[in-house]
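User: Quick sanity check before I run a bigger batch. Here is a single chain. Can you write out its predicted 3D structure?
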Amino acid sequence: MHPYILRKNHAFPGIHGPLVLVIMDGVGLYRGIAQGYPGNAFDAAYTPHLDHWLKEAPVRGSLLAHGTAVGLPGDDDMGNSEVGHNALGAGRVFAQGAKLVNEAIATGRIFEGPWAQDIGTPEAPGHVLAAWEKARTRGVDPAEAPHAVHLLGLLSDGNVHSHIDHLFALIDRLGAVGAPRVLVHPLADGRDVDEVSYHRYLAALEQRLASWRDRGLFYHVASGGGRMRITMDRYQADWSMVRRGWDTHVAGRGRLFPTAREAVDTLRAENPGVIDQDLPPFVVSHPADATRPVGPMADDDVVILFNFRGDRAIEISQAFTEEHFSAFPRDPAVKVRFLGMMQYDGDLKLPPRFLVTPPHIEGTVSHYLAQAKVRSLAISETQKFGHVTYFWNGNNSRPADPELENWVEIPSDIMPFEQKPAMKAQEITDRLITELDSGRYQFIRVNYPNGDMVGHTGSFGAAVEAMNVLDRCLGRLWKAVDAAGGVMVIIADHGNCDQMYEVDAKTGAVKTDKGGKPRNKTSHTLNPVPFIVLGKEALDLTLAPVERPGLANVASTLVFLLGYEPPEGYEPSLVRCKES
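Assistant: Done. Predicted structure follows.
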C-alpha cells in the first residue's frame, strides 16, 4: 500500500455521519449557444430534487470533466468514464491513453519493444518478417505469406477507446517495414461519434489500405460489426458478445460480403434505423475466392488490439491470452502473438505484452482512507461497477484493503437500455439505504449509470425517463443520508444526456436529417458537471477559491469532509469552512 502521512484537519474535524458520493454518470450541465435547446433530457425530465438542489444546496457549483482537466490531449476532447473515475479516485490529473499513444507515436517509442520482436525491422527481422524473407525466396505471393498481422479495434476518431490515426500509424509502419499481409478488423462506433458514420471511417481506411496494395502488399479489411453487438463487452456483462467477436474475427465465420462497404450498406437496408453500434457482424470474402474469408486468424499470427481504453478491451484480451480460459469454447483455439495498445489491467498484468505504457497511478484516495481506517463501500450495477472500483482505484482490480473497502455489484439486465431506462437505479438505492441503516460505513461511493448508458442509445424519451427515475432515487437516498446525520455530495463524471441532439457549433441550431427530424447525438459532451453538497454540516462550508475546478479536486474534498488534510500532491479541496 502506498504510504501516507495522515494529518487530521484541525479547521474542520469531519462530519459526524456517513459521507455519500453520488456519481450521476453522463449527466452534464448544458450551456449551449441556443436558448431553450430541445435535446436536453435533463431539462425535459421531471427532476424536482435536482432542480431544487442546483438552486438551493448549501454548497453548489460545477466542475470540468473533459479535456486537459482529466488528462486528455486538448479541451476539444470529451471526457469519459474511464478518465473521469481515474481523476476522481487519484485526486490528480494523469496523462491518459490518447495523449500517451500520441506521444509514443510521435517519438517512435511505440515501434520498439514487443512490436520489434513480433514484426521486426529490415535491420533486425522479427517473427513476421523473418518468416516472409524465407517465403519470398520461394516466390510466395504476399496473399499467402506465412503469417499475418491482424489489427483489431474501434474505428473512429472519438478518442475515447481508440483513434483512427493510431490505426493508420500502425498500418503505415507495417507497410514501411514490408509486412506482407495485414488484415484489419474494424468495429463500428456510433457511440462516441455520429451514430451513423461508420461508412466514412471505412472509406478512409480502405483508401489507406489500397495505397499499400498498390505497392504489392496484401492489406485488407477482414471483418467488422457494431461495438455493442460483438467483441467489446465489459465487466463480464455479456460474454456472448465476445464469443460472437471470436467467431467473426478469429474463425471468419459469418455472413460473407465482397467488401466492408457492401456489408454495411446491405445490413443497414435490412435493418432500417439501425445505428452503427448495433450493426450485425460481417466477414469480408477473399478477393480471389468469394466462398472463403479473407482474414481468419491462425496459430502464430500477430494480433494487435489498437484500443487504448481498458474496460472494453479486457475480455477479448483474456480470450486471446489466458491458457485456462473458460468463458466460452474458443473455436478455433488458435494461439496468436497478442499485443494490446496498452496494458489494460495493471493488477492482472493484462495483456502481458503491450505497445504503450499506461499511466502509473498510485496513492489513490481509497488507499489513503484505508490507511486512515475509514470503512468504505463502492456500489453500482454491472455496467459501471468497474468504473467505481477498478478505475477509481487507479486501474487496479482489487480493493485497497479488503477488510476496509467493500465492493457491491448489482447485476445489470442484458437488454437494450432504452427498453428499461430505469436500469437498476431502484435496486441500487434499496441496497444503499440498507447499508446506511447498518451504520457500517463512513464513506460510500455510488455510480448511477442511467444518464450515460441510456443517453448513448440516442433515444430522447428514454433518456428523459432515465432522469425521472434517477431524481426519484436520489430523493429517497437523500432522506436516508439525512436521517443518518450524513452529508451527500452529488457530481457526474461527464455529460451525455444533456445533449441528445446534434448542434451546429456556430449557430447553436439543432441539426436535422433530410426529413427534418433532429439528428441524434449518442456521444459524450464537453459540458461541465454538477457539484452539490447537501447536509446540515454543509451549512458551515462554502466553495473554496479553486481555479478551473474539476473532477480531480473531488478526492481532496472527500478527505476534507472526513476530517483529514489532503495528501501532498492532490488537487485542492473544492470546499472550505466559512469565515467566522
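Residues 460-483 form the longest helix (24 residues).

User: Great, the batch can go ahead then.
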